[in-house]
């Protein structure tokens, strides 16, 4: 019943999901860094930075991810010649462009999750930190953000799960991840429902433990007041 | 006003540490600080009292610029209060602050609370900072709690840790913004005792409080504020036994006679 799976070798089923995992991990790390920087901008005392952070979030999170991913390929790569250090290796170039697009998009959501976390930290924490002579970046980095992160592990888990599933959009620019293989299989095989179920199961295997682990972590790291 | 001039002469002898000159501030339509002139000498303990909404907390917070002021000047140890930035951070390290709600860093242990500023601001090495932190925690009587988190401590213990955290920076002056107002009655004394010891050790202190007993026993001078103004300044004895202004008489009759 499942023997169609072994007909696919470039990539194999596991290989395609491995690409999904790689897209998720790289984009996850990059969007965490980017989202943290954006959140820092949005609470900074410099109006220009606040303005940039606000504009970025409101523009990027309201554009469909498909448009962003397609733009990285047709816009950044084809028109502006941004080949991401891999002008001849189109698979690698596509992968890197997809990571860029996914990170840029997800960073906006990480930023907003984190900002709501910052709002849960009582003002007195920052005041006490300033009162002992810490500067703005120390107050944020040592006192406010560590507490904000712990408060939003749950919402960040949501963002990460959404990101895992959003990696399927990378199929639009030919990245050989799970959704692209699924499309190929559906075109060639008769067992459409079965193929759908296999891929759905694959994603649940990736995201369910993520959600459970981060839920456990968020309880464990919760700041007691 | 004889008391004021006496205080100023004392100040000249030992050096003025904190000087406020015609300080003004509004919260919207509310004129919360009105032409405040106040000089605090090195080693002096000044207690600020007054009804709520009189501007005494705002005054306290303005001294390390947690509240900005609109007019007038504040100088600390001869230097005017800088604007936001590196200079201000350096000045704040020299001004210890104790808050009504303790504000201990909730995600750090008691020991980390007291070492953080020493390491990150004073650039001390970790070992020396921990040594000093443990000594200070012992001094305020919470040495045994060093490895706990703030939420595991009682209010009185938390506030004593907060005092140790401020002292760790070796401040020139300590500001106390209603340090006992959020405490259960049985814990007030343990905090006041630490403050009294600090006063005896010669620390310059500005204390906003409702603890009249502390004002009587530890203060060199009582400043009475009402409606954003300093209404009266006197020694504790004189202020409590023979207040001059009607506003102060009225306030004292309300808090002492029941």
From TrEMBL, chain B:
Compartments (UniProt record): Cell membrane
Alphabetical list of InterPro entries matching this protein: AAA+_ATPase, ABC_ATPase_HisP-typ, ABC_transporter-like_ATP-bd, ABC_transporter-like_CS, MetN_ABC_transporter-like, P-loop_NTPase
SUPFAM superfamilies: P-loop containing nucleoside triphosphate hydrolases
Domain ABC transporter: 18-252
UniProt xrefs under SMART domains: AAA (SM00382)
Membrane topology: Peripheral membrane protein
Keyword Cell membrane assigned: yes
Keyword set, alphabetical order: Amino-acid transport, ATP-binding, Cell membrane, Membrane, Nucleotide-binding, Transport
Main location: membrane
GO molecular function: ATP binding
Domain of life, per lineage: Bacteria
Protein name: Amino acid ABC transporter ATP-binding protein
Lineage: Bacteria, Bacillati, Actinomycetota, Actinomycetes, Kitasatosporales
